[in-house]
């Protein structure tokens, strides 16, 4: 008998009929917080390390608050309401608060998008700026990275008397985990700095993957640059697949982020017995699947559960198409994923914008065949080097029949309804 599984897809979800033997790979169930606003305020009063936010704030201070942009499902309004209430109770004036939308190298968000992210009252009364990684006049060099490139961070953040960084923590396709120092780098860093950190050699490092922080050169560099930018008060949350707040982690950056990572690890790292012949994934639905560039995260996490030579199907709405920047151009300039990887592995490769997403997509395709079910038409899908999937359920049944006929056994099928919110890890064999 078929079983229905709802994939996180756009704003509404996608119901798919799977063979009964399909196995779901989902985050471990934990209860969400009963009262998130109260939990956030409690975390500000009693941080995991360092003084309470109220003790750090004082009249006359210039305060910079960094948030995540629209591509991240962060409850920005919830976090900002508690932060601003605390700051003003300590005497900080409205005109002394600057909210920086940490876009990294993404596009800036429109006024309507900012209102949806922060709430209309905050947009109406506070200074808000979209970070622009190319706006060199707004950046300052604070160090050089190990590859000789400048570490560039926003001057208005560096010059603030009190720096606050918000965000949420989930497994990240090459930074190990989001949140923490990632709010500063790449959140409010310069283009050169991000490009160097996201180079092909860094992204290709074996430890630059979901769920690894220690020994991950990208994670460690992001954290180091955030600390070089000066002390900050961190406010991060973890969330479940329905974007409900599960935990709040506040205080000194390292201690608060490490505590949040441990909470996220217990929730999101899921052991599997062995890889699957077919893996179906989402990218967590809206806003994470706005475009294919962002949705490569779903491909990358599902590839961890895929048997070499298997089939991976991504269901991501991609209402904004392929995505911004050079990602689509990179795919168009190379005839296949193999051609792209060969060019990147050559000694003459120069880092270009968004290459990291194209690289991780190509690495997944090196492992198996990748299909896409989205709002893109067949021609648009094939232009991205992916196979077109008109119907997820029908494609799974057809592929499973082919595998059973060839291998003489039923095909194994794994389903990640929430994409990268669950990071599969093949279970280590027990010692004899």
**From the coordinates shown, what is the CATH architecture of the largest domain?**
3-Layer(aba) Sandwich
The CATH topology assignment of the largest domain is Rossmann fold
What number of structural domains do the residues give?
2
Query: Could you tell me the strand content as a percent range?
Result: 15-25%
Largest sheet: 6 strands, parallel
Shape: globular
Structural class: alpha/beta
What would the average pLDDT be, to the nearest integer? Answer: 95
Q: Going across the major beta sheet, what is the strand order?
A: 3-19-15-16-17-18
Question: What's the β-strand tally?
Answer: 20
Helix % is 25-40%
The top level CATH class name of the largest domain? Alpha Beta
Rg over alpha carbons = 22 Å
- Structure annotation, total helices: 16
- CATH superfamily descriptor of the largest domain: LarA, N-terminal domain
Task: Indicate the low-confidence ranges by residue numbers.
Answer: none
Terminal-residue CA separation: 38 Å
Explained architecture:
This protein has 432 residues and is an alpha/beta fold. The protein folds into two domains: 178 residues, 2-enoyl-CoA Hydratase, Chain A, domain 1, CATH 3.90.226.30; 232 residues, Rossmann fold. It contains 16 helices and 20 strands. A six-stranded parallel β-sheet has the order 3-19-15-16-17-18, with helices on both faces. A six-stranded mixed β-sheet has the order 6-5-4-9-12-13, sandwiched between helices. It has a two-stranded antiparallel sheet with strand order 1-2. It is globular. The mean pLDDT is 95.
């Amino acid at each position: 008998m078929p079983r229905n599984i709802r994939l996180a897809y756009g704003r509404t979800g996608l119901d798919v009929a799977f063979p009964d033997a399909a196995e779901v790979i989902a985050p471990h169930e934990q209860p969400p917080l009963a009262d998130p606003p109260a939990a956030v305020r409690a975390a500000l009063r009693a941080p995991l390390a360092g003084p309470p936010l109220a003790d750090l704030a004082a009249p006359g201070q210039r305060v910079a608050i960094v948030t995540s942009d629209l591509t991240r499902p962060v409850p920005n309004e919830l976090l900002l309401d508690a932060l601003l209430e605390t700051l003003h109770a300590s005497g900080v004036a409205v005109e002394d608060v600057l909210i920086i939308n940490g876009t990294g190298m993404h596009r800036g968000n429109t006024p309507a998008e900012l209102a949806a992210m922060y709430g209309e009252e905050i947009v109406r009364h506070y200074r808000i700026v979209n970070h622009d990684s190319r706006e060199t006049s707004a950046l300052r060099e604070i160090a050089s990275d190990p590859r000789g490139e400048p570490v560039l961070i926003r001057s208005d953040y560096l010059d603030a008397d009190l720096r606050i960084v918000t965000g949420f923590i989930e497994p990240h396709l090459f930074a190990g985990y989001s949140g923490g120092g990632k709010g500063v780098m790449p959140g409010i860093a310069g283009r050169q700095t991000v490009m160097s950190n996201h180079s092909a050699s860094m992204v290709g490092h074996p430890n630059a993957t979901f769920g690894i922080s220690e020994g991950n050169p990208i994670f460690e560099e992001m954290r180091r640059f955030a600390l070089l930018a000066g002390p900050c008060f961190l406010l991060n949350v973890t969330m479940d697949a329905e974007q409900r707040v599960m935990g709040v982690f506040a205080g000194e950056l390292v201690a608060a982020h490490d505590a949040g990572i441990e909470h996220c690890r217990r929730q999101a790292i899921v052991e599997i017995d062995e890889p699957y012949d077919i893996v179906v994934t989402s990218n967590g639905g809206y806003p994470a699947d706005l475009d294919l560039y962002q949705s490569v995260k779903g491909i990358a996490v599902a590839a961890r559960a895929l048997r070499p030579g298997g089939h991976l199907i991504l269901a991501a709405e991609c209402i904004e198409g392929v995505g911004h920047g050079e990602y689509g151009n990179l795919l168009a300039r190379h005839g296949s994923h193999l051609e792209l990887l060969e060019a990147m592995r050559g000694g003459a490769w120069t880092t270009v914008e968004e290459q990291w997403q194209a690289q991780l997509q190509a690495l997944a395709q090196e492992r198996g065949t990748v299909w896409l079910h989205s709002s893109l038409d067949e021609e648009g899908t094939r232009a991205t080097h992916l196979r077109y999937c008109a119907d997820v359920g029908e494609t799974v049944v057809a592929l499973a029949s082919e595998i059973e006929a060839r291998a003489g056994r039923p095909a194994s099928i794994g389903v990640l309804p929430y994409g990268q919110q669950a990071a599969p890890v093949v279970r280590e064999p027990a010692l004899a």
